[in-house]
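Sat 14:20. Reprocessing the chain from the morning session after the first attempt stalled halfway. Input below, unchanged.
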Amino acid sequence: MQNSHVTITYCVGCNWLLRAGWMAQEILQTFQGDLHGVTLVPDETGGVFTVTVDDVLIWDRKRDGGFPDAKQLKTRIRDKILPGKELGHLNKRGERTDSNTPKNYPKER
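Finished this time. Tokens:
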């Protein structure tokens, strides 16, 4: 699904540009050829750090209790755009990493 687009919105006042940039690089490295792009959106809202895929919220720092690690974020993106994709060393062969997704997180059908 090469038309999918990831947007990372981050708090400017919190100096989270480097974190957002690092996560964008991780996403692009893992999903090269599978995404249309990743956009970084600076925001003045205090404490905001969200990640959306095609305008669907998949991570919110406040809702999800902090920042995602690379594995958590890549898993949620994979589950949204390419549910069958292996994440290499991040998950064992054939193992789904859905355990990183909170129980109240909506599953794709």
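The first helix runs from residue 17 to 30.
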